[in-house]
UniProtKB/TrEMBL annotation:
The chain crosses the membrane at residues 6-28, 60-82, 94-117, 137-157, 187-209, 215-232, 263-280. It holds the Pfam family BPD_transp_2. GO terms for cellular component: plasma membrane. Keywords: Amino-acid transport, Cell membrane, Membrane, Transmembrane, Transmembrane helix, Transport. GO terms for biological process: amino acid transport. InterPro entries: ABC_transp_permease, BCAA_transport_permease. It is found in: Cell membrane. It is a multi-pass membrane protein. This is Branched-chain amino acid ABC transporter permease. It comes from the Bacteria.
Length: 290
């Protein structure tokens, strides 16, 4: 029973990371109605930037904040320079652009930082009071960071004029323009927020899986599964779906399929959701009149 509780709580920890990346995917989907396949590689590149700052002697939390800010700027620049000119391009062309971004960030990280595995420090001491035999301090801290970020984003979208403008621009760009909202600026803000969220997720997962250019590939797949389960157009659903996938992945990997095959759990979840309930648990069913 103790081992089961440990796996369950560890699943919630990894689920918090998946929830963050799934939230970033949903934010970009709401803005562009496309999946950003480069989201994981952008998060990985941001984590390398944090690693470089920490090795240069910058305190962890200052490097954390600087990385989030730089990641915001990079993602916003990607939207402005690369994604926005492709707005009226065929869907297949946009998919190719996202795949190209994935390859660019992956190759750039390998070229600048190398392909050797590196250790990334955890901001949560191993002997912290909130750690226990069931959950390490880093696992508890990861859940706290994920929930705090979700709460901040919820407050931003619900109670700030800028957040409401961003929601309006993402959901109905034409109507948003009529009331004076700069839709292009709002979409750029959405991309920036997604980049910042991805950076946080990368810095939380790096102490567990170690830092290398491959580290976010599996995380992105699990996060995509979480976004589909919760609803690809529902931020709250993406968070719930991320936690569900984290728990299922840990339990299935420990007691059913083994660690070698647990990545297949995400693929099964993706296919199952697309067949049974394509809109996800909290997504909207879109009906078009013809």
């Amino acid at each position: 029973m103790t081992e089961f509780l440990h796996q369950l709580l560890a699943g919630l920890s990894t689920g918090g990371i998946y929830a963050c990346v799934a939230l970033a995917l949903v934010m970009i989907y709401q803005a562009t109605h496309h999946i950003n396949f480069a989201q994981g590689e952008m998060a990985m590149f941001s984590t390398f930037l944090a690693w470089m700052m920490i090795n240069a002697g910058i305190p962890y939390w200052l490097a954390f904040v600087l990385t989030v800010v730089v990641s915001f700027v990079i993602a916003a620049a990607v939207e402005l320079v690369i994604v926005r000119p492709m707005q009226k391009a065929p869907e297949l062309s946009i998919v190719v652009v996202f795949i190209g971004l994935l390859v660019i960030f992956h190759s750039l990280a390998g070229w600048l930082f190398g392909y050797t595995i590196k250790q990334f420090p955890s901001p949560f001491p191993q002997d912290a009071w909130y750690g226990s035999a069931l959950m390490s301090a880093h696992e508890v801290g990861t859940i706290f960071v994920a929930l705090a970020m979700v709460a901040l984003l919820f407050a931003f979208f619900q109670w700030t004029p800028l957040g409401l403008s961003l929601r309006a621009a993402a959901q109905n760009p034409a109507s948003a323009k009529l009331v004076g909202i700069n839709v292009g600026r709002m979409l750029m803000l959405g991309w920036g927020l997604a980049g910042a969220i991805g950076a946080v997720a990368g810095m939380m997962v790096a102490p567990v899986v170690f830092l290398d250019p491959q580290m976010m590939i599996g995380v992105l797949l699990y996060a995509f599964a979480g976004a589909l389960i919760g609803g690809i157009d529902s931020p709250i659903g993406a968070v719930i779906g991320g936690f569900i996938v984290g728990v299922l992945e840990n339990l299935m990997g420990s007691y059913v399929v083994g660690t070698e095959l647990k990545l297949s759990v995400a693929l099964i979840l993706i296919v199952g959701v697309l067949i049974v309930r394509p809109q996800g648990l909290m997504g909207r069913r879109i009906v078009k009149r013809v």
